[in-house]
Amino acid sequence: MSTTSAHARGPSYGRNYLPFAYPALVITVAVIVFPWLFTLFMSVHEWKIGSAREFVGFANYFKLATDPRFIESIGHTLYFTALAVVLPIGFGTAAALVFNERFPLRGLCRAIFILPMMATPVAIALVWKMMFHPQLGVLNYILSLFGLPPTLWHTSVDTVIPTLVMVEVWHWTPLVMLIVLGGLAAAPTEPYESAKLDGANAWQMFRYITLPLILPFIVLATVIRTIDALKAFDTIFVISEGGPGTASETINIYLYLQAFSFYNIGYASAVVVVFFVLIIVLAMVLLWLRQKAKWS
Hints:
By secondary structure, this protein is mainly alpha-helical. Helix content is 74%, strand content 1%. Strand 1 and strand 2 form a beta hairpin.
């Protein structure tokens, strides 16, 4: 076969594979592209279910900027996200350091530790809600055994968000542990051997060897946890429903109420767009930090 004929048949040979990409393209457009375009379209309209749709331009966005309940929900979201990221990262990293050591029944302990991650968020929220009950909950009973007064947990304005964060920490600390544990397993042993010969203690080896080696994995876990905590809905809705009052009303809860309780679809669409932009900005910052972390 000549070179000329082979080149002539090349493009035709490649085009034969294009139809295999069409189903994926159609699904992507139907599931991702069209919903977002429709959301953008609805965000510039005033539309409540059962009434006519009216074009209002950027009025919904201007209304969001002056809506005290929406602004308050942003604060609740950032507060919840900060706690739900920092605490699992700290506890998960500490757990990874522990489980990286050799001790009897280490495999069994690892398996037990990751069990919370396998349960569904709604089931977890229902169990914890029963445990948080002010009169019948087991947590207040445990406090009474130590002579401590009962706590209102999710029914108090002051404690509702830390209470919700406690559930998130219990649920997702194992994920952070697995990510960091993978980094520890991939770490080389030569630097530790050299450090021991130089007389370095445990803290110095952690500070100058272990931490730099696992830092990219910690940043990766931070990115995953931040995105997941920002869009947390099921745990918050099942346990507190955004209450008491609006004390735990995050953006997701506020969005749900606008769309499915007040049927204000146009305004809820504007909330979706703003929330999406917020997630993109935070994700870009975290990805930039991940790029700054040096992989060894």
